[in-house]
Task: structure prediction
Amino acid sequence: MKSESIVFAFVGVFLGVMVGWVLGTQQGGWCGRASPAAAPVPQAGAPAARTVDENQVASLRAELQNNPNSVPARVALGNLYFDAERFDEAAKWYEEALKLDPRDVNVSTDLGVCYYSLNQPDRALQQFEQSLSIDPKHPKTLLNQGIVRAFGKQDLDGASASWQKLVDSAPNTPEGQRAKQLLDGLKSGHPGGGIPTSTPRGQ
Result:
């Protein structure tokens, strides 16, 4: 599963930004859509993305020639491109893997993270719903769903619902602990401990 490689590194920054965002909504209102910089992409000064190991790619493609229905080879190719932050190519291989094994919740969630990283939050959320139809309590899906709802759709209520479900169902997992941090950050940033209500916005 590759989705934590972006999201987990992003949670610390996200928490600080989210608290500021909540304070901003209290102090006069926040408006507009999230900028592409809100997506989990490398930040200025971050190390350059790793290149794809073409020898591994060639080996996996050779495996597919010998076994055209290999799901593991497709997932491995997706993972290689995901690690190199070539999300369009990663998504292609994850999509192919899911055609052969549509109930692989980890691949489904990785695909959702790819869509979000390609600035397609609605598509990401649809993919996370597919993941949750397979496993309604899947921790990484719930964590990622909350992040996309918050930054991709400016939906704090939806984000807090995802994270609360994660805290309730898997409080001792790394994802559950991060979700609790995010919820605590929202509450501490808003007097009275309540989660602010999101205002619907037109497209």
Summary: The chain has one domain: 4-26+52-191.
